[in-house]
Amino acid sequence: MRRFSCRIYGVLREGDKVLLTRSRFGDSTFINFPGGGVEIEEAPGDALRREFLEETGLAIRLVRTLYANQEAHLSTAAPIQIVSVYWLVERVSGELRLTGNGEDVLELFWRDLTDLPLKEMFPAEVEFSRRLPALLA
């Protein structure tokens, strides 16, 4: 039986920089955008607002969908396929917590659109990140 994991991520932009997270899963660390899994019976927009608040301390407004993965991405941790959707978001309120959430997010940082750390990202994020500058142009 094949299973899927729906993931939703937010791109918060300030000038030419975007907010990224350094996260931990098991013994591995990786870079991605704030966001995460959509729970059963949870609307994707609600999941993104929840995940963004948990990981960054910020309440956000969803602006527009930027991208949905077009390639097949299999999880390295479980026999599931990852389906990721990326939204442009705006800050509404809250205080950005650059030190992470004390759980899976180790830190948050700003990075220039033309210098994203692709070697530290999972394939789904690499697919999206390579297209991001054109999507925001």
Descriptive report:
The chain is of the alpha+beta class. It has one domain (3-136): Nucleoside Triphosphate Pyrophosphohydrolase (Alpha-Beta Complex), CATH 3.90.79.10. 20% of the residues lie in helices and 47% in strands. The chain starts with a strand and ends with a helix. The model has no long low-confidence stretch (mean pLDDT 93).
H/E topology pattern: EEEEHEEEEH
Mean pLDDT: 93
Content-based structural category: alpha+beta
Question: Helix amount, in percent?
Answer: 10-25%
Q: Please, how many domains?
A: 1
Calculate the terminal CA-CA distance, rounded to whole Å: 41 Å
Number of strands: 8
Cα-based radius of gyration, to the nearest Å? 14 Å
Q: Major sheet, described briefly? A: 8 strands, mixed
User: What is the CATH architecture descriptor?
Assistant: Alpha-Beta Complex
Low-confidence stretches: none
> What is the CATH third-level topology name?
Nucleoside Triphosphate Pyrophosphohydrolase
Please give the structural blueprint.
Elements: E1 3-14, E2 17-25, E3 28-32, E4 35-37, H1 44-56, E5 58-68, E6 73-74, E7 80-94, E8 105-112, H2 123-136
Parallel strand pairs: 1-7
Antiparallel strand pairs: 1-2, 1-4, 2-3, 2-8, 5-7, 6-7
Question: Quick gist of this model?
Answer:
This protein is an alpha+beta fold and 137 residues long.
